[in-house]
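Late entry, nicotinamide-adenine-dinucleotide complex.
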Amino acid sequence: MNQINLGVIGAGWVGGIRANACAANPLVDELHIAEIDPARAAEIGAQAGAARVTADWTEIIGSPQIDAVIIASTPESQRFPILRAALEEGKHVLIEKPVAPTLEETDEAIALCDARELKLAVGYTRRFDPKYAFINRAIKAGDIGDPVTCLVSRNITREIGDKIKGRSKMSPAAMGGTHSIDFLLWCLQPRLPVKVYSQQAGKLFNKVSDTPDHQWIMVTMDDGTTIAAGSGWVLPLGYPQYSQSWIEIVGTEGALTVDDTHREISLNTVENGIRYPLSSMPGEPVDHVFAGAMADETNHFVTAVAHDRPVLANAREARLVMDVTMAADLSAETGEPVSLSLP
Ligand SMILES: NC(=O)c1ccc[n+]([C@@H]2O[C@H](COP(=O)([O-])OP(=O)(O)OC[C@H]3O[C@@H](n4cnc5c(N)ncnc54)[C@H](O)[C@@H]3O)[C@@H](O)[C@H]2O)c1
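Prediction complete; structure with ligand written out below:
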């Protein structure tokens, strides 16, 4: 078996899920973890049976025996030096979105990958959710004819919104909307986005910060398909890290309607009222199984590195998503549509 050694940098909520998935993957020999919170480092190190736990990410990047790293530290704005160092040291990388704060840095990362033949996967976890994979296949197979409009409306609870707005100034487009834009651009390949319009709304978080509550993005594709992607983070608590989406794709020969609101399980208790278990975006472990897409996504990356296969969500695609979300933020600021001139 072609085993690899892997490092996880930033083992909070998401990094912890990925570390545990790697620990259970027979293709992973040694698992190394860098985490600056000592309590979390001790907890996840023991859970995942890590070969090494350190507070210093440079130790992981500098270790010649490590083949690949997963970068899941926050804040997002401080991750690029870690990414660049990892690629310069010849490590394959899975990074949470966005690849980097700017397009220039993203291009630098892509150039490093090209020069060193490295894989750079981006954490667009929706692509590994069976419902989303089904929509992608149906659109690409022409099951609904030619797509006309594509809607994804995604909302998460204010508990997550609070966590996100506390650590960075990233917009709803860049944080949650990016998943929907990536998903729809993937489904609509090889079409390209040509025009973006966006509006933000704020009535809750903006009283205490400069963060809006919600953002809508409208994208015109080069064949005239319209995308509408909404992303908000002020839902009341429905379960820890609850996330809900409605998806509606209408084509010339049919339509796809997908309820991704996690209503299939409801747990009603005297103490908490109605809750919707297993409803977070990455998913969660349930004893011997993982309910959600993030474990499969992590295993896909491990397999891609161990067997030298391509990654599903690569940095060039992620750059295109950044083009759209950055244009959306500009549009929301100016109130004008933004044209994209892509090669
Ligand atoms: N793909 C998805 O579905 C999905 C879902 C939620 C979050 N995310 C993304 O995952 C990333 C992580 O989010 P999270 O909710 O796990 O955040 P988190 O705050 O729970 O975890 C981040 C961890 O990084 C650690 N850290 C910070 N700086 C570090 C450093 N220099 N070295 C080592 N560790 C360091 C922190 O102590 C913390 O434990 C974010 O970019 C987020 O946007 C992705």
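Residues 9-15, 34-37, 40, 57, 72-74, 76, 96, 123, 125, 281-282 surround nicotinamide-adenine-dinucleotide (CB under 6 Å). Will revisit in the morning.
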